[in-house]
From TrEMBL:
Catalyzes the condensation of the acetyl group of acetyl-CoA with 3-methyl-2-oxobutanoate (2-ketoisovalerate) to form 3-carboxy-3-hydroxy-4-methylpentanoate (2-isopropylmalate). Its cofactor is Mn(2+). Residues 13-275 form the Pyruvate carboxyltransferase domain. Its EC number is 2.3.3.13. Belongs to the alpha-IPM synthase/homocitrate synthase family. LeuA type 1 subfamily. This is 2-isopropylmalate synthase. PROSITE patterns: AIPM_HOMOCIT_SYNTH_1 (PS00815), AIPM_HOMOCIT_SYNTH_2 (PS00816), PYR_CT (PS50991). Residues 400-532 are annotated as: Regulatory domain. SUPFAM superfamilies: 2-isopropylmalate synthase LeuA, allosteric (dimerisation) domain (SSF110921), Aldolase (SSF51569). The gene is leuA. It is an enzyme of class 2 (transferase). InterPro entries: 2-IPM_HCS-like, 2-isopropylmalate_synth_dimer, AIPM/Hcit_synth_CS, Aldolase_TIM, LeuA/HCS_post-cat, LeuA_allosteric_dom_sf, LeuA_bact_synth, PYR_CT.
């Protein structure tokens, strides 16, 4: 193990975080001095090696923020960006004065497109400017990093000549940026090998990779560069940055860790801090993290599919290649939805304190699927309501609601039609009724279909959860022969919950009456007030 905890058989990769510079170039992401400081402290706790704290010439506030970070964040190298000109370099030097280890990062474009149209300089002029800028920066900081902007669209031999000039002038790190996210893993790896083989003095510096995600290849390209000799990797938290963003550091770090069989490289990153840092950056920049984002997304360790949930419950590694705790996420989440199976439902109910018999689990699962078809997320409170509904339905089902339809409006009389299956009766019974509102019409239609009239003592409706798709829980109490019978049901449709609850109460009522009735008197007539 080295001082940062990397195993001796692994090659140490320096992690260069540019969330506060390239990341802050994301449209709308700008941070004030205090926010930058907060992120820098989190990055220090995360264990990155270099923090690119800003571009001091950009504004007085930016310069001050870099100064403050230098004062308060002591372990990592603090880096500041500068164009290849004396003003930028002097601003960077000024900002970095208090750093325990300072680095000026000089960048200068080397591609034909950039040199001709943006800089309006010849290759020879660019080479000279690079040399002078690095030499000047050397006088203002402990370390100098030189980046050939748009390197991946540059002539490779010219690139090597510029790097040689920068190294001779004192550069300690040579960065080969894929500024516009144009390269591919194989090509980028080849470029690193080419530069390493054709640049005099390259062995004296650290080679660095800096990738953008315009083609979604930033992390793959960074890993390819590491395999081809890069010993510093640059990126941002959550992959934020100019246009499609930079390489997401959390993804690179975890790829190296999870696939150590393929990548014998280690970093000093305290991976347990990744999620916390991601949340902080997202909150302060106002850039949300997509739920399916690798490593730090809310769904990165969530499973909804029943087959996956079953696998996870039997052995976590069936569907998880790393444990969430390793990246600071709290735990694996089994999300209950319409793709879930009985194993996950039983597990969640057990966690909620419900041990169900196989029959009750089956009945609850059937109802759960009906609800999940209508609701995106079935919450714990929904589940409890469903179980309690099933537990309440202990009486044998004499009546089963097959169908209902309600017509209502503020200028029409509410009318309900129901179809009820009655145990022992071959054809289902269909009836309709009008009422004083949709619930009244519905309960009247049920009374007609079942032939049972009950004295409704109370009807209570409440929302189980909040939101437009909240489940409504209906509890009805009916009185018969001095005894009260309760029916309870839940549904995202309150009319359905009302009908189911009422049918349940009637089932209990006729069941109780049947138990009291003489053997030759049918149960339904013992409780029945009227039929038809
Ligand atoms: C690939 C990257 O991420 S590079 C970093 C990009 N980040 C930023 O630009 C954010 C901060 N930028 C800023 O605040 C401003 O652009 C400043 C303060 C740096 C410069 O502002 P201005 O002086 O008004 O110049 P402006 O941004 O309009 O144009 C850039 C100038 O820098 C020149 N330039 C660009 N890159 C370099 C370089 N590496 N070295 C020297 N000059 C450069 C351009 O050719 C142009 O020069 P010109 O005015 O002679 O045509
Ligand atoms: C400043 C340089 C390294 C940069 O951000 C880029 O080229 O993408
Ligand atoms: Mg960049």
């Amino acid at each position: 193990m080295d001082a940062s905890g990397v195993r001796g058989d692994k090659v140490r990769i320096q992690v260069f975080d540019t969330t506060l510079r390239d990341g802050e170039q994301s449209p709308g992401a700008s941070l004030d001095e205090m926010e930058k400081l907060e992120v820098a402290k989190a990055l220090e706790a995360l264990g990155v090696d270099v923090i690119e704290a800003g571009f001091p010439v950009a504004s007085p506030g930016e310069l001050k923020a870099v100064q403050e970070i230098c004062r308060q964040v002591r372990r990592p190298v603090i880096c500041a960006l500068a164009r290849a000109n004396p003003v930028d370099i002097e601003h960077a030097g000024e900002a970095l004065k208090g750093a325990s280890v300072s680095r000026i990062h000089i960048f200068l474009a080397t591609s034909e497109i950039h040199m001709r149209y943006k800089l309006r300089k010849t290759p020879q002029e660019v080479l000279e400017i690079a040399r002078e800028a690095v030499a000047l920066a050397r006088r203002h900081a402990h370390q100098v990093e030189f980046s050939a902007e748009d390197a991946t669209r540059s002539d490779w031999d010219f690139l090597c000549r510029v790097f040689e000039a920068a190294i001779r002038a004192g550069a300690t790190v040579i960065n080969i940026p894929d500024t516009v996210g144009y390269t591919t893993p194989a090509e980028y790896a080849e470029l690193f090998r080419y530069v390493a083989a054709h640049t005099e003095g390259i062995e004296r510096v650290v080679l660095s990779a800096h990738c953008h995600d315009d083609l979604g290849l930033a992390v793959a390209n960074s890993l390819a560069a590491i395999e081809a000799g890069a010993r510093q990797v640059e990126g941002t938290i959550n992959g934020i940055g100019e246009r499609a963003g930079n390489a997401a550091l959390e993804e690179i770090v975890m790829a190296l860790e999870v696939r150590e069989d393929r990548y014998p490289y280690g970093t000093g990153v305290v991976t347990e801090q990744l999620y916390r840092t991601s949340r902080l950056v997202s909150r302060l920049t106002g850039i949300p993290v997509q739920p399916n984002k690798a490593i730090v997304g809310e769904n990165a360790f969530a499973h909804e599919a029943g087959i996956h949930q079953d696998g996870i419950l039997k052995h976590r590694s069936t569907y998880e290649i790393m444990v969430p705790e390793r990246v600071g996420q709290t735990s694996t989440r089994l999300v209950l939805g319409k793709h879930s199976g009985r194993h996950a439902l039983r597990q969640r109910l057990a966690e909620l304190g419900y041990e169900l018999t196989p029959e009750l689990l089956e009945a609850t699962y059937r109802r759960f699927l009906e609800v999940a078809d209508r609701k995106k997320h079935v919450t714990d409170r929904d589940l409890v309501a469903l179980v309690e509904e099933q537990q309440a339905a202990t009486a044998p089902e004499r009546f089963a609601l097959e169908y209902f339809h309600v017509d209502d409006g503020n200028t029409s009389v509410a009318t309900a039609t129901v179809r009820v299956r009655i145990a022992g009766v071959e054809a289902p019974v269909q009836e309709a009724a009008c009422g004083d509102g949709p619930v009244d019409a519905l309960l009247r239609a049920i009374e007609r279909a079942t032939g049972v009239r009950a004295e409704l003592e109370s009807y209570h409706l409440q929302a189980v959860t909040s939101g437009k798709d909240a489940m409504g829980e209906v509890t009805v109490r009916v009185r018969d022969d001095g005894r009260v019978h309760v029916g309870r049901a839940v549904s995202t449709d309150v009319l359905e919950a009302s009908a189911r609850a009422y049918v349940q109460a009637l089932n209990r009522m006729v069941h109780a009456a049947g138990e009291r009735a003489p053997a030759d008197e049918p149960a339904s007539t013992a409780a029945a007030g009227a039929r038809g």
